[in-house]
Specification:
- The protein contains 13 helices and five strands.
- The chain has 336 residues and is mainly α.
- Strand 1, helix 1 and strand 2 form a beta-alpha-beta unit.
- Helix 3 packs across helix 12, helix 4 packs parallel to helix 13 and helix 7 crosses helix 8.
- The chain binds tryptophan.
- Tryptophan binds next to strand 1 and helix 7.
- Tryptophan (TRP) binds next to strand 1 and helix 7.
Length: 336
C-alpha cells in the first residue's frame, strides 16, 4: 500500500482497433476509479506478440493506445502509464512463475482454446503461457485490485492460485489480488449481432464502432444497427438490438434506461438511432481531438513514457529482487 491507497493494475493490448466497447466498458471506468487507487495502467505489448504482428503497426498502435489512456483522462503524473516491454522485470518474473504453474492449469484456459482454434497455424508456447505473463504483470506491483471483464476472470483466478502457491512455499511475498467489481462497466454488444460482444476482431466492421471512427462513420453504423420489427422503444431482452443501443446511449449521456425510454416514447427507431450516433460522436470526437493533440507533442509524450517506465521499473524490480532472493538466486555483488 502506497500513501494509504490500495494498488490497482490493469492493461490493454495494442492489437486491433479499440472499440467503443473497450472505452465504455473499461477505459472510462479506469478514469472514474483512478483517484481511489495507486494505478498502474500498462500497454501490454508483450502479450500482443502471441499472435503475429507487423512491427510498424504494433509500434504505432501501442503509441496510440498509450496516448488514448491519457486523452481519456488518466493523468500520467498520478497514474503510471507505461509499455510492458519497457520493464524487463515482467519477462523475468514470468519465467519464474512459469515454474510454478502447471500444464494442466493452463490447458483449462478457455481463451487459450479459443485462440488456438483461431490461429491453428501458430499455436506457440507464448499463447499457452499468456496467463503467466499476466500474473507477472499483476504480482510485480503487488496489486490489490484488478479491473477486468468477464473474459479475463479465469486469468485472474490463475493469478491468485499462482500467488497463493508461491506464498505457501516462501512466505507472504505476493499480494493476492482481487478482481475489481465496482460499478459495472457497460457491456456493449455488436451492432450487427447483439448476441455477441462488440469486438475489435469482428470481421464485420459495421458491428463495431472504433474509437477512431469519424462522425459520418459513427452515424452510418448506428443507422444500420440491427433492431427488430416491433417499432416500439422499450428496454427489454426481447429487443436485444434496441437494448444495446439504449445501453450505448445511456453510457454516453449518463441517463437511465427509463429516462431514455421516456425521452423517445412514441418516436421511431430512425430518430433514436440518429440520437445514439450524435451521443457517441459527442464522446468520441473530443477524445480523438485530444489524442491527436497529445500525439503531436512528441517531446511531452516521450517524457511521460520515459518517466513512467522508470517509475514502473522501480516498483517491479523491488518485487523481482525479493522473489529472486527467496528462490535462492545468488545475490548481486555491488561495487564497494
Ligand atoms: N489479457 C488482458 C486482455 O486481453 C490484458 C492484460 C494483460 C491484463 N495483463 C493484464 C489485464 C493484467 C489486467 C491485468 O484484456
Amino acid at each position: 500500500m502506497l500513501d494509504g491507497k490500495k494498488t490497482l493494475f490493469s492493461g490493454m493490448q495494442a492489437t486491433g482497433n479499440l472499440t467503443l466497447g473497450n472505452y465504455l466498458g473499461a477505459l472510462k471506468n479506469w478514469v472514474t476509479i483512478s483517484d481511489e487507487y495507486n494505478c498502474f495502467y500498462s500497454v501490454v505489448d508483450m502479450h500482443s506478440i502471441t499472435v503475429r504482428q507487423d512491427p510498424a503497426t504494433l509500434r504505432k498502435r501501442a503509441r496510440t493506445l498509450l496516448t488514448l489512456y491519457i486523452a481519456a483522462g488518466l493523468d500520467p503524473k498520478r497514474n503510471c502509464i507505461y509499455y510492458q516491454s519497457h520493464v524487463s522485470a515482467h519477462a523475468e518474473l514470468a519465467w519464474i512463475l512459469n515454474c510454478f504453474t502447471y500444464m494442466g492449469e493452463l490447458n483449462r484456459m478457455t481463451q487459450f482454446k479459443d485462440k488456438a482454434a483461431k490461429h491453428a497455424d501458430n499455436i506457440n508456447a507464448g499463447l499457452f503461457t499468456y496467463p503467466v505473463l499476466m500474473a507477472a504483470d499483476i504480482l510485480l506491483y503487488q496489486a490489490d485490485v484488478v479491473p477486468v471483464g468477464i473474459d479475463q476472470m479465469q486469468h485472474l483466478e490463475i493469478t491468485r492460485d499462482i500467488a497463493q502457491r508461491f506464498n505457501s512455499v516462501y512466505g507472504e511475498v505476493f499480494t493476492v489480488p482481487e478482481v475489481y467489481l465496482g460499478k459495472v462497466g457497460a457491456k456493449i454488444m455488436s451492432l450487427q449481432d447483439p448476441s455477441k460482444k462488440m469486438s475489435k476482431s469482428d470481421e464485420n466492421p459495421n458491428g463495431s464502432i472504433y474509437l477512431m471512427d469519424d462522425k459520418d462513420t459513427i452515424m452510418r453504423k448506428c443507422k444500420r444497427a440491427v433492431t427488430d420489427s416491433e417499432g416500439v422503444i422499450r428496454y427489454s431482452d426481447e429487443q436485444p438490438g434496441l437494448k444495446n443501443l439504449i445501453d450505448i446511449y445511456r453510457a454516453c449521456t449518463g441517463k437511465t434506461a427509463d429516462e431514455v425510454v421516456r425521452e423517445f416514447d412514441g418516436r421511431g427507431y430512425g430518430d433514436f438511432k440518429a440520437a445514439v450516433g450524435e451521443a457517441v460522436a459527442a464522446i468520441l470526437v473530443p477524445l480523438q481531438e485530444e489524442q491527436a493533440r497529445l500525439a503531436a507533442d512528441k517531446a511531452y509524450l516521450d517524457g511521460i513514457i520515459r518517466e513512467n517506465a522508470e517509475r514502473a521499473g522501480y516498483y517491479a524490480n523491488k518485487t523481482l529482487r525479493k522473489v529472486q532472493k527467496k528462490i535462492g538466486f545468488p545475490e548481486r555483488v555491488r561495487k564497494a
